[in-house]
Amino acid sequence: MNADNNHWWSRLYASYGLSGCVALVMLVFLLLVPLLPGKFWTHVGTEILILGLFAMSFNLLYGYMGQISFGHAAFFGLGAYATAMLFTRLKTSGGEIATVDFFVSLLAGPPVAALGALIVGFFCVRLTGIYFAMLSLAFGELLFYIVFSWYSFTRGDDGIQGLLPPPYFQDAVHYYYLTLLIVIAALAVMWRITESPFGYIMRTLRDNQRRAAFLGINVRLHMLANFVIAGAFAGLAGALWGPFSRSVSPGLLGWQESGIAVFMTLIGGAGAFIGPIVGSVIYTLLQAVVKMYTVYWPLTIGTIILLIVLFLPGGVLGMIEKRLRARRGAGAAAGPDRQS
Amino acid sequence: MDVAPYLLQLFSGLSRAMVLFLLSAGLSLIFGVMNILNFAHATLWLVSGYVTYSIFTFLSEQFGVSPWMLLPAIVGTVTLMSLVGFALERFLIRHTYERELPEQLLLTFALVLILGDVIKLIWGLENRRINLGVQPIEMLDTLVNPYQFVIIGTGVTVAVGLWYFLHRTRFGKIVRAAVYSRNMVSALGIRIPMIYAMVFALGVGLAALASGVFLPLLPMSLGVDHDIIVQCFAVVVIGGFGSMLGTFVASVIVGVVYSFSILFWPDGALAMIFLILIVVLIWRPWGLFGTEMRY
Amino acid sequence: MSAILEVTNLHKHFGGIHVARHVNFSLDEGEQSAIIGPNGAGKSTFMNLLTGYHRCDAGKVVFEGRDITNKPPHTIARMGISRAFQVSSIFSKMTVAENVRSAVHAQLRRSFSIFGAASRIGTEDTDRVLALCGLDAKRGLVAGELAQGDKKRLELAIALAGKPRLLFLDEPTAGMSIDEARGTMELVDRLNRELKLTVLFTEHDMGIVFNHAQRLTLMHRGEIVVQGTPAEVRANATAQQVYLGEHQV
């Protein structure tokens, strides 16, 4: 068929799909970000990575399992707060924290978020579609208001300040590479999960829950497992966020924050593994640039989302995938036994 | 026992409930008929508030300040916003009927962002409120804002009017039929696209009415729509999508619970609402008055 | 031959409508049997009740000596019962091979396995089932884009991947051309013969039924009216009345 089948990029595409190729390209750029002048772009890069991880965790529920969770930011926030609170306890009265303690506090995020996801998920997996969305929204808002009003424990609307990383990681570039390392590791684990039998079962739950039950799948139990996994990854992203922005606030748990994950996923494309990260790159970069020139960022992103929903429903990667399929001929096989 | 504070909260709760009802009725109707969850509903309400304010201010400058200027302002706003709603459905919302749920939600959410900034562009950042100069009256040894009675009265009137419209008029019956089965209604030769556009316009019109009624009580400011829309969702889900009776009852529940929660747990009043929502969704997802088959 | 499935006094009503009235039914091991009846007789509902999709109001269902009454679908599926639906119920965004492979993973009890590459687990079983159902050439196609007949074949393949001992088929040839229907039923015959698979299917096409069923059960308004070999049922006066609309329950 094509003469370029033996080229390395054809083999990459055959093995890892579009996501693999895009991920490789992005990795090269991401490694080079700190070379740009000033700290600004490094900061933006860190934000892209953290929020991208958050969006990836959302897509585990949406793109792979077919449910939309409007309360997913609650787990992002829980992870952020868990880390922030442990951080605050472990730091010295002088406001500094030892490197070991810093990593210990990071470790607190995912388990707390996963526990939250276990409780919330127990109820949410009984529903699907709009009701799943509503219930997850309700839990998210409930958790938001609990954090907001429990002043003695969480400092309420004041948030938790003073999350200064240890000296080595106060340098934006060092924190950036740490984040990059953690995010790459997390994504590798996510990839393994989505390409495992469990991942395939998730897809069956997305496409036809009833049929999956008749295959012998305990639908609720599997959905709950995925919900907890997604919550844990969101918690990891939250854990990284606190020391990055030096503070946490209740807004991290709200539905507007959940909305960001949804935007990113839809912009990049929910059907591709790396879609949410692509979405994060586009969204965060756009935000950084647009805010330099105008205060009307909501108008800008609102219009873009409108245009994407109307004209690019599969997101950027979805559109690219469609073009590639068309070029290889209509009805061509979708690749060796896999989705990208 | 001193009844006064409780009575105060009751009236406050009921008037809050009526505003929620006026706002949620449109949302419930739109979802019931077209299966679209209009995130932008509260934002359209907010826009309506600003429009009402502008018309009121303009009329007051022409003819002198008077509470009676509010009526034409409301009428004007409702007309204008209904047309806006009609146009929105016709040109934007229509394209999402065949789409997945998140895409529909994102479209309306995009409208929230866009309209929010449109408000900023036209009216700037300050709050808007209307002071009708209504004096509080004394009731049971305490001061009550009589305007709350106007709100309650309006809410009940609209509720009755809506009921009459849906159950006694031909158009209303078509709308109710469409809630149950789009295809059948279409097969009966009724032009569904027109119905949808008019239902959306009606929904937005109700929201506009809600804003006009609300304006003398509390100021309109940017961001209020974000808080209110989730309460509207709660009301619609608790009451049951597409059921006006459900929306009314749920509005009363939410409004009154919120008001009384303020007495005991001010910061957590909204948490109570979400707790109720969670309970309803777990126990009876289609709501108090919703139909099980829609679930 | 022992009875692999015994149904006693099965009863179900939706509101005022009785869809199963005290039904007694049994299937012998290795049998290939059909349920027939006019529309609304309750054939599909009967299948739904047996596979846990609806709750019975009364009655008992025993499979291989174990009580499966009102157990959830996934439990029943894991015990060795598979079903194919009347309207193709497949995983439309996954490829044909992935559809079958997922069913294989479920059967292998590896559904919680997050380690191990899915595309390399269960390959043997997947290939076998695909070949059996004639879908090997189409393994890379996205299931949602298949032709109707292929979708039904995929439906069957998914059911077979569960290595069932009892297979329910709800109108397996619905919407198929004569050739396709013949091919499908010949496959079912083969499965019944070679794998000793007990098959119960519902059908409207009498030609198919008389050529591919060892025993017939005629249902009408939720009740079993006649049972026996195809010849016996065909000659039965009550059966004729049911189809001509004269039979009163």
Structure description:
The complex is a heterotrimer of chains A (340), B (295) and C (249). Chain A is built from 15 helices and no strands. Chain A has helices at 8-32, 40-62, 73-90, 99-124, 129-149, 151-154, 167-170, 172-194, 197-207, 209-214, 219-245, 255-268, 275-293, 297-311, 315-327. In chain A, helix 2 (40-62) packs antiparallel against helix 11, helix 2 (40-62) packs across helix 13 and helix 12 crosses helix 13. Mean pLDDT of chain A is 90; it is low at 331-340. Chain B has one domain: ABC transporter involved in vitamin B12 uptake, BtuC, CATH 1.10.3470. In chain B, strands 1-2 form a two-stranded antiparallel ribbon. In chain B, helix 1 (4-34) packs across helix 6 (170-180), helix 1 packs antiparallel against helix 8 and helix 2 (41-63) crosses helix 9. The radius of gyration of chain B is 19 Å and the shape is globular. Chain C is α/β, with parallel strands linked by helices and 249 residues long. In chain C, strand 1 (3-14) and strand 2 form a beta hairpin. In chain C, helix 3 runs parallel beside helix 5 (148-161). Classes of the chains: A mainly alpha (340), B mainly alpha (295), C alpha/beta (249). Chains in contact: A-B, A-C. Chain A binds chain B through residues 62, 68, 123, 126-127, 129-131, 133-135, 137-139, 141-142, 145-146, 148-149, 151, 156, 255-256, 259, 262-263, 266, 295-296, 298-299, 301-303, 305-306, 309-310, 313, and chain B through 37, 92, 95-96, 99-103, 105-107, 109-114, 116-118, 120-121, 226, 230, 233-234, 237, 265, 267-268, 270-271, 274-275, 277-278, 281-282, 285, 295.
List keywords for this structure.
heterotrimer, B: 295 residues, mainly alpha, ABC transporter involved in vitamin B12 uptake, BtuC, two-stranded antiparallel ribbon, 11 helices, 2 strands, 72% helix, globular, C: 249 residues, alpha/beta, Rossmann fold, 2 domains, 4-stranded antiparallel beta sheet, 9 helices, 35% helix
- CATH H level of the largest domain in chain C: which superfamily? P-loop containing nucleotide triphosphate hydrolases
Please give the domain count of chain A: 1
Which topology of the largest domain in chain C does CATH recognise? Rossmann fold
CATH class identity of chain A: Mainly Alpha
Order of helices and strands of chain A: HHHHHHHHHHHHHHH
Distance between the termini of chain A: 21 Å
Count of strand segments of chain A = 0
- CATH architecture title of chain A: Orthogonal Bundle
The averaged pLDDT of chain C comes out at: 87
Rg calculated over all Cα atoms of chain C: 18 Å
Major β-sheet profile of chain C: 6 strands, mixed
CATH topology of chain A: ABC transporter involved in vitamin B12 uptake, BtuC
Give the oligomer, counting copies of the same chain as homo and different chains as hetero. heterotrimer
**Helix-strand pattern of chain C:** EEEHEEHEHHHEHEHEEHH
Side-by-side strand order of the widest sheet of chain C:
6-7-8-3-9-10
Largest sheet of chain A: none
